[in-house]
Design goal:
Blueprint (H helix, E strand, L loop, with lengths): L1 E4 L5 H13 L3 E6 L4 E6 L16 E5 L19 E3 L2 E3 L5 E5 L6 H14 L3 E3 L17 H14 L2 E5 L3 H7 L5 E4 L7 H10 L3 E4 L6 H13 L5 E5 L17 H8 L4 E3 L1 H5 L2 H14 L3 E5 L17 H17 L5
Parallel strand pairs: 7-8, 7-14, 8-9, 9-10, 10-11, 11-12, 12-13
Antiparallel strand pairs: 1-3, 1-4, 2-3, 5-6
Length: about 325
């Protein structure tokens, strides 16, 4: 449920409602818009049965939230959220670019690519330290050693760092080295892990599962937010369909659909959707044109020698060229890059 305050309601009015809610064991989330303040009620609204909240000073009306994902819904927070990660804002006018190799492989590799993607315009360095793979015999990542290399690259370039976490142990380790957690598609409904990153309060890039509907995806994001971490950025990365010409089918429609249902920012991962480097640029441009708040793209100094996902990684030159094209699209649609 949300409580809509009247235009011109005072801070005392808002505090009075908040105190009432908290006295009944309910959580409070306050969203101040241009004209109105909305108070989100977190918890079992039956605690307010018989209490005339609508008669309190400054209250205009009570509105039930029909969606099962309460905190992530646009009803709960009508205005788009901007998630700030150490000075970089995701969801605002400026597009955000995250780029780097699928997996951290060596010191030289990650340093070379970090300087290259920064020069091209990226604000984040991405790189996998924990690599959940289809086969247990595939390269599984350097784990904490990989995180240390990412931090070294961050210190050298000033880029922010994002890396995937796969379990509680990985969350504890990565917390010391990264600016933003990534939850990969394989863990999109690993609710224990989602609660763990929710308790961490660190910003989270949350990827859609390959067989997850938009509603299921938003409900899964609710697990993170219900633990008190509202710093969630969604990421569309393709869904499983009958089509085999690409690794997955990028659901471009998910971008406007999510923006109509949720206040959370949404980015797009064209690399995992395409599975082939030749399709990454067209899908990237389509995603930005559709309204995505940024991209996360795999870039490797020598893709043919990559230890994971070699076919879908761009060269630094190809990434630089793509960034130039994205700048042109951003100008047309009123965004900045």
């Amino acid at each position: 449920m949300i409580i809509v305050m009247k235009p011109g309601s005072t801070e005392n009015d808002i505090k009075g409602v908040s105190r009432l809610l908290e006295s009944h064991g309910l959580g409070v989330h306050i969203s101040k818009g241009v004209e109105r303040t909305i108070i989100g009620v977190i918890g079992d609204k039956r605690q307010l049965d018989g209490i005339p909240v609508e008669l309190m000073p400054g209250v205009e009306k009570l509105v039930p939230i029909m969606e099962s994902y309460k905190l992530a819904s646009r009803t709960f927070k009508p205005e788009p959220s901007i998630i700030e990660v150490n000075g970089v804002k995701i969801g605002g006018r400026r597009l955000v670019m995250m780029a780097g190799p699928c997996a951290v492989e060596s010191h030289d590799q990650i340093m070379e690519i970090a300087f290259a993607v920064k020069k091209a315009g990226a604000q984040f360095l991405r790189g996998g330290a924990y690599k959940p793979r289809t086969s247990p015999y595939s390269f599984q990542g350097l784990e904490e050693e990989g995180l240390k290399l990412l931090k070294e690259a961050r210190d050298a370039t000033g880029l922010l760092v994002i890396s995937e976490v796969t379990c509680e142990r990985a969350v504890e380790a990565a917390d010391k080295y990264v600016d933003m957690f990534q939850i990969g598609a394989r863990n999109a409904q690993n609710f224990q892990l989602l609660r763990e990153v929710g308790r961490s309060r660190k910003p989270v890039l949350f990827k859609r599962g390959p067989s997850t509907t938009v509603e299921e995806w938003l409900n899964a994001a609710e697990y993170i937010m219900s633990e008190g971490n509202y710093n969630v950025v969604l990421c569309e990365r393709g869904i499983r369909t009958f089509e085999t010409s690409t690794r997955f089918t990028l659901d471009i429609s998910a971008v406007p659909v999510v923006k109509s249902l949720s206040h959370l920012p949404i980015m797009v991962d064209p690399s995992h959707a395409a599975g082939k480097a030749q399709y990454v640029a067209p899908l990237s441009k389509a995603a930005i044109a559709a309204g995505a708040d940024g991209l996360i793209i795999e870039v490797h100094p020598n893709p043919r020698c990559a230890l994971s996902d070699a076919a879908q990684q761009l060269t630094p030159d190809a990434f630089d060229s793509l960034c130039g094209e994205i700048r042109k699209i951003a100008e047309i649609i009123g965004r900045e890059f």
